[in-house]
Amino acid sequence: MFKRLFCLLVWSTGAVCLIACNTANNRPLSVGFSADSNSIVFKQIDPAGLQLLRQELPADSAFSTLIRVLEKDRGEDTERNIAGIFSVTDSSIVFIPEHTFSKGKDYLVVSYLNARFATAGMLLKGKMDHQLKPEEYLLSY
């Protein structure tokens, strides 16, 4: 009797902790063109992750593994990687391409910023994956 009660208490406490910890910062990443459309701005980044990226700024390879910007022609399936420079501001990351963005093109942004293995609901349902899944954003210019 006490063993079952103890197990129920442990499971319910664990579930409450997972749900409480997961809803602390559930704002989605904001990705879009800057006001002048010369760069792509990433906002609403987890502050702890942004601080780590500030420290890794000299090693630009850290950004290339976290964020990719691909150019797509409308109506075609071809994607080309776009080279550029990343800069970190106090609350966002800015991607400035080597060549300006072209009108009539779509830009696919693949990002691991703010990525999670699973939500609390996925954990409780047993649908947790063993890999991080990147978020994809399609920007049209």
What does this structure look like?
- By secondary structure, this protein is of the alpha+beta class.
- It has a single domain (about 25-120, about 130-140), classed as Immunoglobulin-like (Sandwich), CATH 2.60.40.
- Helix content is about 30%, strand content about 30%.
- It is built from 4 helices and 8 strands; from the N terminus they run H-E-E-H-H-E-E-E-E-E-H-E.
- It has helices at about 1-20, 45-55, 60-65, 120-125, and strands at about 30-35, 40-45, 65-75, 80, 85-90, 95, 105-110, 135-140.
- The strands form 2 sheets. A 4-stranded antiparallel sheet has the order 1-2-6-5, covered by helices on one side. It has a 4-stranded antiparallel sheet with strand order 4-3-7-8.
- A hairpin with a 5-residue loop joins strand 3 and strand 4.
- The termini are far apart.
- Residues about 5-25 have low confidence and may be disordered.
- Keywords: Signal.
Helical region count? 4
Largest sheet: 4 strands, antiparallel
Order of helices and strands: HEEHHEEEEEHE
Please state the CA-atom Rg, rounded to the nearest Å: 20 Å
**CATH architecture descriptor name:** Sandwich
CATH class type: Mainly Beta
Structural class: alpha+beta
Distance between the termini: 65 Å
Q: Helical residue percent?
A: 25-40%
Unreliable stretches, pLDDT < 50, 5 or more residues?
A: 5-24
**Major sheet: arrangement of strands:** 1-2-6-5
Please count the beta strands (DSSP E, at least 2 residues each): 8
Strand content: 25-35%
Mean model confidence by pLDDT? 76
| CATH fold node name | Immunoglobulin-like
Shape summary: globular
The structural domain count equals 1
